[in-house]
Amino acid sequence: MRILLVEDERELADTLRHGLSAEGYQVDLAADGREGLWKARIGEYAVIILDLMLPFLNGYRVCAQLRRDGVATPILVLTAKDGEWDQAEALDTGADDYLAKPFSYPVLLARLRALQRRAGSLCGPLLAVGDLTLDLAARTCRRAGHAITLTPREFVILELLARHPGRTVPKDEFLHHAWPDDADDPNLVEARISALRRKIDTPFGRRTLQTVRGHGYRLIDDRSGHG
After folding, report:
1. What are the boundaries of each domain within the chain?
2. What pLDDT, on a 0 to 100 scale, did the predictor assign at position 199?
3. How confident is the model at residue 226 (pLDDT cuts 50, 70, 90)?
4. How far are the Cα atoms of 48, 73, 202 from residue 43, in angstroms, in the given order?
């Protein structure tokens, strides 16, 4: 899941990016309102986290412009402006939720999950490769009806494969999405791929997660007559 974080406090932005990355999110940063507006227009994000007090273009204007442009991505306002009129204005300009600083990190994660579920109820974000399915809103995995427990990074890796079934995904692409802060160690990918195989293939006698030597990995439907 990709999140756009529009926040000009660099220390807070870095802390949030690190924490959300550990939860399996891919986080893009924007340090001012103009950059945030541009990235939100061209990128595909599950949620936008938006500060209100931003250089060049404040969060109210960013939110209002995105809605005028037809960008329907859920927006969570995260700001030190906690007055009731501030909240009302943010929601009236198109924000979906509002969280005042200082905030509880578990509450922030719960708000993000709620926004994803809300968006998911509208678009039904399910990925399926054969009898393996991923629910992107609930962040759950099932094979032939059986629940499979994945870590956040395992989910990110499997999501990337499931979005491109049959396509070979190179190791650096996994690193970019799942380890944005450690994007130079391919051993991280190999270890997670091995763990994924033990969860999604081995217990079911399957061979859907394949290694393409010298190139990367791919996910296929290995059932008879498929793939």
Report:
1. 2-122, 126-219
2. 96
3. low
4. 11, 10, 36
User: What tokens were used for 208?
Assistant: 């859907």
- The fold for domain 2-122 equals Rossmann fold (3.40.50)
Token code pair at residue 59: 């969060």
pLDDT tens track for 214-223: 899 999 998 7
What gap in Å lies between CA 70 and CA 73, rounded to an integer? 9
pLDDT for 183 equals 56
Query: Which residues, 6+ apart, have CB-to-CB distance to 184 below 8 Å?
Result: 175
Three-class secondary structure of residue 26 per DSSP: strand
Q: Which residues of 168-204 are buried (b: 16+ CB within 10 A; e: fewer)?
A: bbebebbbebbbeeeeeeeebbeebbeebbebbbeee
d(CA 171, CA 216): 5
Instruction: Count how many Cα atoms sit within 13 Å of the Cα of residue 42 in the half-sphere of its side chain.
Output: 6
Whole-model pTM above 0.90?
no
140 and 154 in contact (C-beta within 8 Å)?
no
Element (H, E) at 78: strand 75-79
Distance CA 3, CA 136 (A): 13
Rg of the chain in Å (alpha carbons): 19
Which residues in 74-212 belong to E strands, given as ranges?
Answer: 75-79, 97-100, 126-129, 132-135, 140-143, 146-148, 169-170, 209-212
In the CATH hierarchy, which top-level class contains the domain 126-219? Answer: mainly alpha
Same fold, 2-122 and 126-219: no
Q: Which amino acid is at 218?
A: R
Which token pair is 112? 């993000």
